[in-house]
Design a protein that fits this description.
By secondary structure, the chain is an alpha+beta fold. The chain contains 4 helices and 12 strands, in the order H-E-E-E-H-E-E-E-E-E-H-E-E-E-H-E. It has a single domain, classed as protein yfey like fold (Sandwich), CATH 2.60.460.
């Protein structure tokens, strides 16, 4: 279920897309002052997209067609979720494959998206050690072949990139704590798995 919305800034996504295009066209010489980062609210959403309320149609109407759509399955080859990828905006959106309303339940944010959590974690500058100081201790999580390790907290998962020059497992935690946050996932709190049996 969706947490109380609290204060979530509904930022115009047209401006987000426009700023990304302008940066690509103008380059450093024509760069304008950077817009303030979007607030990422754990369990709620970011950039005007709200978990459990915003739908696939909302994403399409605001951002247009995604660069790529990926259909995810369970180990039993059952439909699980659909991922809408907008790498040029630094945003990926997920909805459950069997949800007739196609409500967004998971958003992944990364550069060039500029975001800061309500506790002050900033993508691209805050280290994992500072994340632990702000949010508390958590276990590191990953899956084989995934490009990141992440710390899971209620409503928000904080990622760092893996070191591809060393073995994937086990994690060198002292090294990981020194790494800068590269991605932030906003997820429903409590996190619930997508249905896979049509219920």
């Amino acid at each position: 279920m969706l947490m109380p919305l609290a204060l979530v800034a509904l930022v115009g996504l047209a401006a987000l897309a426009s700023s990304a295009r302008a940066a690509a066209q103008n380059g450093p010489a024509g760069a304008r002052p950077a817009a303030p980062p979007h607030t990422i609210t754990g369990g709620v959403g970011a950039a005007g997209f709200l978990l459990g309320r915003s739908t696939r149609s909302d994403v399409l109407s605001r951002l247009g067609a995604p660069t790529e759509v990926v259909e995810h399955e369970t180990l039993e080859a059952e439909p699980y979720s659909v991922e809408m990828r907008y790498p040029e905006l630094g945003m990926h959106f997920y909805y459950c494959a069997r949800d007739p309303s196609q409500r967004i339940f998971h958003i992944v944010l990364f550069a060039p998206f500029r975001g800061v959590t309500e506790t002050g974690v900033v993508m691209g500058s805050t280290t994992a050690a500072e994340v632990v100081r702000r949010y508390g201790t958590s276990k590191w999580v990953t899956s084989k072949g995934n490009p990141t390790w992440w710390l899971q907290y209620d409503g928000v998962w904080i990622h760092v990139e893996k070191d591809t020059s060393v073995k994937e497992f086990p994690l060198d935690e002292p090294w990981a704590l020194k790494q800068v946050v590269s991605r932030i996932s906003v997820v429903e709190n409590p996190y619930t798995m997508c249905p896979t049996d049509g219920r």
